Amino acid sequence: MERVPTGIDELDVKLSGGYPKGKAILVTGMPGAGKTIFGIHFLYKACMDGRRCVDIATEESPEDILVQAGMLGLDLRPYLDNKQLAIERVLETRTESTEMASQLGFGFETTEMDLLERAKMLSDDIDVVVIDNIGVFALDLNIKEFRDKIDAINHALTEKGCTTLMIMDDTAYELTHGLAEYSAYGSIKLMTKENPYTGVRERYLDIPKMRGTKLSLELSVFDITSEGIKLHKSKPKTD
Questions:
Q1: What residue ranges do the domains of the chain occupy?
Q2: How far apart are CA 176 and CA 223, in angstroms?
């Protein structure tokens, strides 16, 4: 199976070379776990390799993403300037819709449609897509509607051959009973927990699912450094 590098060398080793090409991978975690940084690594490496990329940003402005990437030494601005990377301004659309709904006294159910329609409207030469955060519309849908939307977005992007990172916060993941994981080809969970030997809280990465990939059952410890994500040697799972 062909792979697309994740942008994190140690993670590529664990995944036999990277994310499965043309498939959707789910990344979940609590706020501050490093989910957005995983997406930035993926975009930066894909752009460096000459792939065309789209970041569908539902919670941050393009300016904020560029600043964060620059602070990690992963400068996305040149790729945005030469049109190799596009950052979709979904945050502004959501905010404007909410403000209009408030002024008119009724609501618009536009966020989930925006994500699906944007996925369908992507040009066929897009190689890599990052959706950060796909959980933003979980509160607006019942469980069946949410599963249907996730499946539809996944199908649309897979049909186009896009390798997709779907980022989702833990709150939305739990609220929707983890249904997004069933739709995704693979999943990565980011978490923090106390090391039972040192008493120090550490960041952990778990890969519970990655089809077509031989996986270790161990957790990996990682740090968020000035150069982005750095994985340590794997450690056994802890309770």
A1: 3-235
A2: 29
**Burial (0-12, 13-18, 19+ Cβ within 10 Å), 166:** buried
Q: pTM surpassing 0.70?
A: yes
Angle of CA points 190, 238, 6, to nearest 5°: 30
Q: pLDDT digit string (tens) for 214-228?
A: 998 889 999 999 999
The model's pLDDT over 147-200, given as tens digits with 9 standing for 90+, comes to 999 999 999 999 999 999 999 999 999 999 999 999 999 999 999 988 878 888
Helices (H), 122-169: 143-159
| Residue owning tokens 């983890």 | 178
- Here the tokens at position 47 are 């752009």
Q: Is the domain defined by 3-235 classed in CATH 3.40.50.300?
A: yes
Non-local (6+) Cβ contacts of 5 within 8 A are 12, 17, 18, 45, 46, 49
